[in-house]
From TrEMBL:
<dbReference type="GO" id="GO:0043023">
    <property type="term" value="F:ribosomal large subunit binding"/>
</dbReference>
<dbReference type="GO" id="GO:0006412">
    <property type="term" value="P:translation"/>
</dbReference>
<dbReference type="Pfam" id="PF01765">
    <property type="entry name" value="RRF"/>
</dbReference>
<dbReference type="InterPro" id="IPR036191">
    <property type="entry name" value="RRF_sf"/>
</dbReference>
<protein>
    <submittedName>
        <fullName>Ribosome recycling factor</fullName>
    </submittedName>
</protein>
<feature type="domain" description="Ribosome recycling factor">
    <location>
        <begin position="18"/>
        <end position="182"/>
    </location>
</feature>
<dbReference type="InterPro" id="IPR002661">
    <property type="entry name" value="Ribosome_recyc_fac"/>
</dbReference>
<dbReference type="InterPro" id="IPR023584">
    <property type="entry name" value="Ribosome_recyc_fac_dom"/>
</dbReference>
<keyword id="KW-0648">Protein biosynthesis</keyword>
<comment type="similarity">
    <text>Belongs to the RRF family.</text>
</comment>
Length: 185
């Protein structure tokens, strides 16, 4: 039924957004995803582009990111964007490249990140439950309008509940994996 596939699509989008959100969380390990979506006001603020559109981002070992802008004239703009970001990283310019040294996370920082992740995960779980509630309401309305049989209503509700559990579990697994990544020293 159309409602089921719409519900699945919405839940898959929620999960994709969660994965994207969690990518940018600093875990103490160098990962280009940490900075690739930073918005850079390049060319005297005339254009706002994401860092991955303006530069090559690579890793050098477990705690160093190297950003090499395609156009060396925007190095200062890239530095500004990194400094303004909530990442707490000080860029070091070496010729036409910017080196970002990631410091190890303190226990306190790890705890804050885990709380933040839990918050994000809870928001996504709430979104999934809201989608479930919307679909259940549509199923109920369809039954009351005599467009759906009682058996069909119960079957659809059961399917939606099973899918809700599946997607909620998937969100939990993503959370656990990110927490393990943060806990690693």
């Amino acid at each position: 039924m159309d409602l089921i596939s719409q519900f699945q699509t919405n839940c898959q989008k929620v999960i994709a957004f969660l994965k994207e959100d969690l990518k940018s969380i600093h875990t103490g390990r160098a990962n280009p995803a940490l900075v690739e979506n930073l918005v850079v006001e390049a060319y005297s603020g005339q254009s706002k582009l994401k860092l991955f559109e303006l530069a090559t981002i690579t890793t050098e070992g477990p705690a160093i990111l190297v950003v090499i802008p395609f156009d060396p004239s925007i190095i200062k703009d890239v530095e500004k964007a990194i400094l303004k970001s909530p990442l707490n990283i000080t860029p070091q310019t070496q010729g036409n490249r910017i080196v970002l040294r990631l410091s190890a996370l303190s226990t306190e920082q790890r705890e804050k990140l885990i709380k933040f992740i839990s918050q994000k995960v809870e928001e996504k779980k709430t979104s999934i439950r809201n989608f479930r509630d919307e679909v259940r309401k549509k199923i109920k309305n369809s039954f009351e309008a005599k467009e759906t049989t009682e058996d069909e209503k119960f079957r659809l509700e059961k399917e939606i509940d099973n899918l809700t559990q599946k997607y909620t579990k998937e969100v939990e697994i993503i959370k656990e994996n990110k927490e393990k990544e943060i806990a690693e020293i």
